[in-house]
Q: What sequence folds into this?
């Protein structure tokens, strides 16, 4: 059974009671930060609380593992828009312990595609067209490695301004404890 009817019922009440007023802000991040982080459900509320980030403080870009797999993908585009159009002056890449992207079994995931009805020929066609599943579904050996790979990709991006710092962190998804992997304050 879909949860959509319950969500719609709640949403109607939320709007009627004007509960949205507590969250009103504009599109510009007050703390001037863009945060690339994982989509893990444990981080939805914990991460902002652990960083003292409230609605309107930061631009959040979420994907599996906080990984930038390609320099011209949607996550990198979001970071560039946050910096150039929305006033972000620092970028945080925040991974977490126990991430599902750690040692991701690409072959096993492709097998699940097939189990769910994806034609193996479609996967083969993609591979023959240059979409390599091992690259597209890339995980990492450790969360630290994943964060540092993303930090390096952002820093080296030909369209990313050199004076904007890119910091790397790992958060504990149970306690919210934050470890700094790299604090990047370069000369402007």
A:
């Amino acid at each position: 059974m879909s949860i959509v009817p319950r969500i719609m019922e709640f949403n109607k009440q939320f709007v009627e009671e004007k509960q949205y007023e507590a969250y009103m802000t504009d599109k510009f991040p007050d703390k001037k930060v863009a945060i690339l982080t994982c989509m893990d459900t444990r981080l939805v509320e914990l991460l902002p609380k652990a960083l003292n980030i409230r609605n309107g403080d930061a631009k959040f870009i979420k994907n599996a593992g906080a990984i930038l797999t390609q320099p011209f993908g949607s996550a990198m585009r979001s970071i560039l828009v946050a910096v150039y159009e929305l006033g972000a002056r620092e970028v945080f890449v925040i991974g977490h312990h126990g991430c599902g992207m750690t040692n991701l079994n690409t072959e096993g995931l492709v097998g699940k595609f097939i189990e769910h009805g994806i034609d193996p020929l479609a996967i083969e066609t993609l591979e023959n067209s240059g979409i390599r599943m091992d690259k597209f579904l890339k995980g990492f050996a450790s969360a630290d490695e994943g964060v540092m790979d993303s930090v390096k990709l952002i820093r080296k991006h030909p369209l990313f301004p050199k004076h904007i710092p890119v910091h790397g962190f790992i958060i504990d998804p149970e306690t919210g404890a934050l470890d700094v992997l790299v604090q990047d304050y370069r000369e402007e």
The mean pLDDT is 95. Strands lie at 33-38, 58-63, 90-96, 166-171, 178-182. The domain at 4-104+139-182 is CATH 3.40.1050.10 (Beta-carbonic Anhydrase; Chain A). The chain has one domain: 4-104+139-182.
